[in-house]
Amino acid sequence: MKPTDLHRLNLCNLDPLTENYDLGFYLQYLMQWPSFFLAMEDEGKIVGYSRNVPAFYLHEHKAETSVVMGKLETQPDAMRMSPHYTPWHGHITVLTVAPQHRRMGYAKKLTQALEQACNGQDAFFIDLYVRASNKLAIDMYKKMGYSVFRRVVDYYQDDPTGKSNKGEDAFDMRKPLDRDKKREHVRENGEEFRVHPEDVS
């Protein structure tokens, strides 16, 4: 992925359920985690992306249909006593595929590549945030072994349905990795465990 490729994400971002960011945000990811931000193309057009899949993905699978972007992170040691502390883990900031390229298995392949990469970095789990109203995405992630860990109230600053002037809740969905042998970083009924955006920053 090159900085000039950032101008070619529009095909993927023209979707009300895809979070859009300013150019500086994408550049920050590209500079800090270059091997976790890749593009897949179809006839020269970027048709999907997610931040957080490692560089080997394109070489191994020779796919040309998505973009990947993400990071590995942990919260500062000062947060260790907080009930909301998150240890070393992978985070999918964005996973999106252009509408005409959906239901072809690209999202699943990208996510599996991320899981493999994060296992290689000894992460406890992978997480992502998804709009609570995005049932298709939630069901897809559940089929891949993710579960809702908590509900982040008013995480999104807009409501894409237009039904409300306030924000929309997000589900923090997680999938435990090999390091989390005791499954300490997942929980039952996470939809009912409510936190606020400041608890997860």
Structure description:
Helix content is about 20%, strand content about 30%. With about 200 residues, it is an alpha+beta fold. Strands 1, 2, 3, 4, 5, 6, 7 and 8 form an 8-stranded mixed beta sheet that branches. Residues about 50-65 have low confidence and may be disordered.
Q: Can you lay out the helices and strands and say which pair or pack?
A:
Layout: H1 10-13, H2 23-32, E1 37-42, E2 45-50, H3 56-61, E3 67-73, E4 89-97, H4 106-120, E5 125-131, H5 135-143, E6 147-156, E7 168-176, E8 194-195
Parallel strand pairs: 4-5, 6-8
Antiparallel strand pairs: 1-2, 1-3, 2-4, 3-4, 5-7, 6-7
Characterize this entry briefly.
The chain has helices spanning 10-13, 23-32, 56-61, 106-120, 135-143, and strands spanning 37-42, 45-50, 67-73, 89-97, 125-131, 147-156, 168-176, 194-195.
